[in-house]
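B., you asked whether I could sanity-check this one before it goes into the benchmark set. Here's the sequence:
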Amino acid sequence: KDPDIAAAMVRKNIEIEGIVEAGKLLTLTADRAENIGFADGVFNTRSDLYEELDLSGAAEMMAEQAPAERFARYVTRPYIAPILVTVGLVALAVEVLVAGFGLAGIVSILAFALYFGGHMIAGFAGQEVIFLFIAGVILLLIEAFVPSFGIIGLGGMGAIVASIVLSAATTGAGVRILLMSIVLTAVVMAVLFQYLKKTNRWTHIVLQ
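And here's what the prediction gave me:
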């Protein structure tokens, strides 16, 4: 195939008469690629392709996605991952505010397990992000009971932030997931704060 056509798809300074002018990137539809000789053919079905290649009698075997692969694809979607992180962070914050391990703690563990588990199955992250996240949670719990002027708490938050960002497919994707989660968490916590002030549990947290 003509290498100039391929180069014109990524370099604006290439001009090919009758195909693309200088200053524009070349974009080809399937039919146009066939018309200019950059594709050998366009086929609507695999059977049509087999017939063209004289392979109409060939056996065909399809590889199906495993359940774990489907799970990983779902939880790593751009709009699912931030929701899981948000649920995990909100539940973690509620668990810290309300004494004793309860439903919020279980929800937080499940949400982060789904987030990190999906990204590990997808091959985006390794076990190090799990250790980093657990270390961050431990540091936050220590901060809750041992005064350190916020140093231990900041270290814990930094570890949790790093684990979320590093577990994503790319650093940019991780930052986007984190920023979306922070915004959603702030909104949800503001609503929960108004609700908690009206419950009996709030009197055990803050003096009236």
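One thing to flag: DSSP finds ten helices and no strands in the chain. Otherwise nothing jumped out at me.
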